[in-house]
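Anyone opening a protein record will find just a pair of labelled lines. With that in mind, the following record should read easily:
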Amino acid sequence: MLYNPIKKNNFKLKTREQKTVSIICKIFLVILLVTIFEGALRKWVANSLTLPLVFSRDALAIAGIFIGLTNGRSLFRKSSMQILLAWTALIIFWGGVQLIFNQSSLVTFVFGLRFWLLYLWFAYIAAITMTERDFVLIAKTLAIILILMTPLVILQHLQPPGSFINKQVDGDSDNVFMLAGDVVRTTGTFSFTLGYAVYLSICLPFIFACMMPGFRIFKYKSIVGLGFLAAGIGTLVSGSRSSILFFAILLMIYIYSLLFFTKGRKNKIYAIFFTLALLAALSILPFFFSRAIDATQERFDSAAQSENFVQRVTNMFFGEQNTYSHVTFLGEGFGAGSNAAAVAATGKRAFQLAETETSRTILEGGFLGFIFIALKITVLAFGLLKSFGIARKSGNFLPLMLWITATIALLSWSLIGQLTVNSLGFLLLGLSVASLRFTLRKLT
């Protein structure tokens, strides 16, 4: 978890000339693909596929951890591994105490171990064993899937809530989330709007990275342009205020980085003109998606009247106001706030303890929840500082954009509450840590 990428001799890294993909990368990609497409299968084929699909990717994560530890036994001598082992032991011990004193459910505790530890461990293993070629392949996969998903989200946006493409196979239009009027909030291949918004956020750093001078994921610039337009269209029709704001924030960070971190005048001028051309293409989108803009504007206006934006953002990062008066030293029990535990207990998906990640963390873990938040902030501060230094020194600002995304993810996404976000969020963390190790210049 606190792996130090500065020490290059901390692990045996295969060279960039390696022609094969590592087994950890293959497992990473399969987990990613299952996470992306399991929602589509549950939504349009059968909701009963939920457990088999979730169990299959969890089993892959366990296998990846086992393979990584078996092939890298020297990992146990590293300080980062020792910290992660100590944290794991503390979680298990604390959860056992919760079981005894709270008389909570063993099933809920197992869910808690899964949400708090499983993908954290897999992200750690992937981050320190992934090769540069692996990293680029994953980046390509994320970008290509985003491009291929764009026609689907456009179709969802244009179709009414009662159409097959927008509702659950065994559900009705009343359960479809609406943006405004008869305009739906698109979900892509996910079963819920949150999954698509999270996926957009993970893809954006890689989309912007494709436009960096000297950084070539794809051989043809046309694919880069398609990726940027796909991100713009996806954000526009998503109906997610957070996605729209995040796109704008990351775009500003990219432009700032382009102006101040890019090395070489020729590269900088070319990159600026290429970016301006893509922004010009993006500016044309309102003429084709005026329906989405009008609905989103109506959504922003209605939200401004019914809630305080500053209060909402504060709650997302610091927890809901009534949380701290209900916190106990031991906590309610790991997993108690997850939607999976709610399904097991009541048969309905819901967040039982709180809506925000910070509140769930401290209500589930009690004192240990505060420690977990402190550990996350420590890791994020290190990653941001290290990635900022890389951007200034080399002009590679992909790690900086990844760590900014990871900061928002670890502090506000439903990492310990929602199955899809749990997987995608920790996979993002693994990619963020791995990005600190690679030069990523002129790759194909």
Summary: The two ends are 30 Å apart (CA to CA).
